[in-house]
Amino acid sequence: xxxxxxxxxxxxxxxxxxxFLSDYRSKNLRIKSNCYNNQSDSNINPSVRNFNKLLHNLxxxxxxxxxxxxxxxxxxxxxxxxxVSIKNPVITAPLAGISDNTYRIFANFFGTALNFTEMxxxxxIHYGHKKSLALSSVTDYExxxxxxxxxxxxxxxxxxxxxxxxxxxxxxxxxGCPVPKILKAGSGGYLIQDExxxxxMIKKLSSILKKPLTIKTRIGWDKNSINILSIxxxxxxxxxxxxxxxxxxxxxxxxxxxxxELIKRVKxxxxxxxxxxxDVNSSARAKEVLDYTDCDGIMIGRKAKGRLWFxxxxxxxxxxxxxxxxxxxxFEPDMDWKKEFVKLYLEFLIYFKGEDRGIREFRKHLCWxxxxxxxxxxxxxxxxxxxxxxxxxxxxxxx
Length: 399
What we know:
Blueprint: H1 2-27, E1 29-31, H2 46-58, E2 79-81, E3 84-86, E4 90-92, H3 101-109, E5 115-116, E6 120-121, H4 122-126, H5 130-135, E7 145-150, H6 154-164, E8 170-175, H7 180-184, H8 195-208, E9 213-218, H9 228-238, E10 242-246, H10 260-269, E11 274-277, H11 283-293, E12 297-300, H12 310-320, E13 325-327, H13 335-353, H14 355-369, H15 376-383, H16 389-397
Parallel strand pairs: 4-12, 5-7, 6-7, 7-8, 8-9, 9-10, 10-11, 11-12
Antiparallel strand pairs: 1-13, 2-3
């Protein structure tokens, strides 16, 4: 019954994506008049055909199946992390309290080629804590998916990785989180201060795992200890299959400018795939960053909160970039579509977490999704009083 319910929900999600693309094409995409020589498909401009291919891949025939996600591969952008095929460069970042099953399924249907779980404590997996084990649950609708672990004890990290590797396609080590409580425990970004430990941890895990191992890190601890080139070379030689780099130091957190130049240098000096991260706030920016750094993938985090369709904006910008296709700006769906989106998001949350918890977590998504909507400030107080599915639907309809 659960599998059938999820298949039904993903079918509804597919329909929502179809509507999004239809509106996108009619309202946000302009095609120069000389794109068509005649009605013959063989004479359609390649850029137009590429966009039509994107549409086709997003709307597979038949019933919804776990592998009926986007799977679209713009020419020149696919790559591999060991034996895992990554079909396009759009990748979701691990976001604490956000990157759950629902988020990852929606991300997949809106264009991503690789999703990450939120970071999971290695100690939680090692000791079999229910909460940590629940965070490591991945459905086929979310794949390919990387499970991200954090921790400071190499043996515990290794044990945790082995315990959960069969659940996902890739195991990722968090070596970049700037949150104080994570740093205090010697985890996350704290690790890159000790290059010997970084090497030992990667070697240990890569030697015992069957799945590819990757790391997510930053350019250095602070402005006086920029060591990303060294970390990247260590990661490659120790067995990592790819590296994701946020272009700030750990001490910067999310303030200051992102240093794409350093990430570009890393890409020039290692052979493993490099994924760039940080301040991707528009689809045009995503294309610029990819072109400048020559990275294999681009990781999108905070910009997608409450705007998962932004991932599709990025994919279209990358796949449709041409002098023949004119993409005016990041597409903003209309209110009716957003209401259907948020209702379906709630249905997924309830499916995975039950009504009580699903409703509680849903409240923040409501605020993010309707941010900037006229009169929404008056509704925010009501958002946080919702206690049932029925109340949620009534509240959404009044927006």
